[in-house]
Specification:
Helix content is 28%, strand content 22%. By secondary structure, the protein is an alpha/beta fold. α2 crosses α3 and α5 (195-205) packs across α6 (221-228).
Length: 357
């Protein structure tokens, strides 16, 4: 049962105080974009002597590393408390802070699953020419502990990437164009994250109607993407200007129609059904002939769920692989059965059994 006080709300307040008001184990996922403590001491000047609009906001300034470390421990501890036992957290940062954050994540008992590199397609250049152009940020993805059964929508992510596994390096542009919030021609928030980044994170590690927390909401990207994707959001933002901008942005955001929010189910989350179970339960009978898609090959089903083709016998997978001269083959899609005047893959019988169970 979702706490109505946490349902699709953003509040203007101090995260360290507001988090303490939240009941234990409330959220399925946390995305945190905390102050980076960039330690900028001087103005950045372009070669043409114009000033760079860098991050020098008061919220990003801390007196010392010790003060910043204490800040990390305080908010991370609260996030871990309000995270469900099978929940996970994403934290984004730069080289200025991500290693300090990573240490505290491990010290507090989180279990790191991945570090992801966000390669920016259009990074800000290094105007002084004294260092490499800083073209990436790092995200840490961690479960609440090493025993957590965290969400990872592997099949959806693979489909998103043209049937290839998504690697831990993500090439995405920084926030710009119409997506970038501006007032009087100036950026509302200096570190507004692109919606594409949050789309991938929420799609990967949450499901429809999951409760998502962002303790440093900023200009509202997490809440906006959560609303679009049918997730339930709760955000905290200390700065009234950012909060107002996020609120306005949310009101102008339309959720994606529910009909289009379905995602691919992970194979590992589906109940495993051996081919022999179809025989045991009478879904398909011993002696039934099964065929390849063009009906040039036929085999017969034995009482133990094995199949026999000429001099070969074994599982639906091994016999199909031998016919093809391959190391392996998915027998569920190779073999077909006669249904009326058409051939259908035997996998349809498995899916029907899953549905009935």
């Amino acid at each position: 049962m979702i706490n109505s006080n946490l349902k699709n709300k953003i509040i203007n307040g101090n995260s360290l105080l507001e988090l303490k008001k939240i009941p234990d184990e409330s959220f399925d996922l946390v995305f945190a974009d905390p102050p980076y403590n960039l330690q900028l001491r001087n103005q950045l000047i372009r070669p043409d002597r114009s000033k760079v609009n860098a991050v020098n906001d008061e919220w990003d300034q801390f007196e010392s590393f010790k003060v910043y470390d204490d800040f990390i421990i305080n908010w991370l501890s609260e996030c871990r408390r309000v995270l469900k036992k099978n929940g996970s957290i994403w934290v984004i940062g730069s080289y200025h802070n991500i290693f300090r954050v990573g240490t505290k994540i491990q010290d507090l008992g989180f279990w790191i699953l991945n570090d992801v590199i966000w390669n920016k397609n259009n990074p800000m250049p290094n105007f002084r020419g004294t260092r490499f152009t800083n073209a990436h940020e790092t995200l840490i993805w961690a479960s609440k502990d090493k025993n957590s059964k965290y969400t990872f929508n592997y099949q959806s992510l693979k489909c998103l990437n043209d049937d290839l596994q998504i690697r831990s390096t993500w090439n995405l542009p920084i926030c710009n164009g119409n997506e970038r919030l501006k007032e009087n021609g100036k950026k509302v928030h200096s570190t507004q994250k692109p919606e594409s980044l949050l789309h991938r994170i929420l799609l990967a590690s949450s499901n429809k109607n999951d409760l998502i927390l962002d303790p440093f909401l900023g200009s509202g990207t997490t809440a906006v993407v959560a609303k679009k994707l049918g997730r339930i959001f709760y955000g905290i933002e200390k700065d009234k200007r950012y909060f107002d901008a996020a609120n306005k942005r949310l009101k102008n955001t339309k959720p994606i129609e529910d009909n289009y929010l379905d995602t691919l189910q992970n194979n590992r989350s589906k109940p495993r059904i051996p081919f022999g179970s179809l025989v045991e339960m009478g879904v398909i009978k011993p002696g039934t002939e099964i065929y390849d898609q063009k009906k040039k090959v036929n085999a017969k089903i034995m009482v133990d769920g094995s199949i026999k083709y000429q001099q070969s016998e074994g599982s639906i997978h091994k016999v199909a692989a031998k016919i093809l001269g391959a190391e392996s083959c998915n027998g569920w899609t190779y073999w077909h059965y006669q249904s009326g005047n058409t051939l259908k893959p035997i996998d349809e019988l498995r899916q029907r059994l899953r549905h009935n169970n």
